[in-house]
Amino acid sequence: MFDKIMQAQQKADEVKKRLDNISVSGEAEGGKVKVIVTANKEVREISVDPEFYAQADKEELEEIIIVAVNKALAQAENVSQSEMQAVSQDLLGGFGNLFNK
Q1: What whole-number distance in Å separates Cα of residue 79 and Cα of residue 56?
Q2: CATH fold for the domain made of 7-95
Q3: How confident is the model at residue 100 (pLDDT cuts 50, 70, 90)?
Q4: What is the 3-state secondary structure (H, E, C) of 43-59?
Q5: What are the strands of the beta sheet with 23-28, ordered from one edge?
Q6: Residue 82 main-chain phi, psi, to 5 deg
Q7: Are 49 and 32 in contact (CB under 8 A)?
Q8: Annotated domain spans of the chain
Q9: Minimal CA–CA distance to 76: which of 44, 42, 34, 27?
Q10: Where residue 94 falls among pLDDT bands split at 50, 70, 90?
Q11: Is 39 helix (H, G, I), strand (E, B) or coil?
């Protein structure tokens, strides 16, 4: 049983490392603002089209950045859930085998 718990912890650590290396993006205003985050929801990059930046007012720019960040975070959440679900199914199968012994 202890081995299964250790295996579960090890798999969770592996997934976290894998999620650190997966990047997803969110865009707003037709790609004029783009945000890249890891699947662990760490913002890595925010880029704003220079022409849009020159024409946008402060409030508009802030709102559009928020939209892009939220889209990127939603993508990251989807990837994270998919990865965790796959690991959970593997682990639950292992625990089921443990109880059937």
Answers
A1: 32
A2: Ybab; Chain: A; (3.30.1310)
A3: very low
A4: EEEEEECHHHHHHCCHH
A5: 23-28, 33-38, 43-48
A6: -60, -45
A7: yes
A8: 7-95
A9: 42
A10: low
A11: coil
Q: Cα angle at 17 between 12 and 21, to 5 degrees?
A: 140
Query: Whole-angstrom distance between the N-terminal and C-terminal Cα of the chain?
Result: 11
Identify the residue whose tokens are 């059937």: 100
List, in order, residues 6 or more apart from 35 with CB less than 8 Å away. 25, 26, 27, 43, 45, 46, 47, 65, 68, 69, 71, 72
Token couple for 21? 């290396």
The one-letter amino acid code at 95 reads F
pTM of this structure: 0.78
Burial classification of residue 40, based on how many CB atoms lie within 10 Å of its CB (0-12 exposed, 13-18 middle, 19 or more buried): middle
